[in-house]
Specification:
alpha+beta, Archease, Possible Chaperone, Chain: A, domain 1, four-stranded antiparallel sheet, three-stranded antiparallel sheet
Length: 153
């Protein structure tokens, strides 16, 4: 698991005592897109030392959901999917979220980047299976968004 003090302190923090067998974190952002991106970074940092991962491959993903909470879980699980199914570690997340006012559906478009897993180069950490709804919270406090997520490892 990553060190307690982190260069990512303004983006997220790991909640060391929140869960025993899993990993929990809080991610922060000035808006919904930023909190999603920082939650994605926390998920990536749980899986690998992200400093060694270069954003060589880029993809665009699109997800939609009426429930913004479910959209965040879907997005984080997409990152886990790339690690498991395509053997790609992701480290760059440029997220855009729009709400269709007529339908109430939130549409996420994200430019994601990373590279294939290289066991000689990448320091793999926890094998994340999924982002869960256990203790999940997505809230806006004034001008700051906070997401609390537990990752099943």
């Amino acid at each position: 698991m990553p060190e307690k003090k982190s260069k990512f302190a303004s983006k997220f923090k790991f909640l060391e005592k929140a869960v025993t067998a899993d990993v929990a974190f809080e991610a922060y952002g000035k808006n919904l897109a930023e909190v999603f991106a920082n939650a994605a970074l926390a998920t990536a940092e749980t899986m690998v030392g992200t400093d060694a991962v270069m954003p060589k491959m880029q993809k665009v993903i699109k997800l939609q959901n009426k429930d913004v909470n479910a959209l965040l879980i879907d997005f984080l699980n997409e990152i886990v999917y790339y690690k498991d199914a395509e053997q790609v570690l992701l480290v760059k997340f440029d997220v855009n979220i729009k709400e269709n006012k007529e339908t109430g559906i939130h549409v996420l478009t994200a430019k994601i980047a990373g590279e294939p897993i290289d066991y000689k180069k990448h320091q793999l950490r926890a094998d994340v299976k999924a982002a869960t709804y256990h203790m999940f919270e997505l809230k806006q406090h004034g001008k700051t968004w906070t997401a609390r997520v537990v990752l099943d490892i």
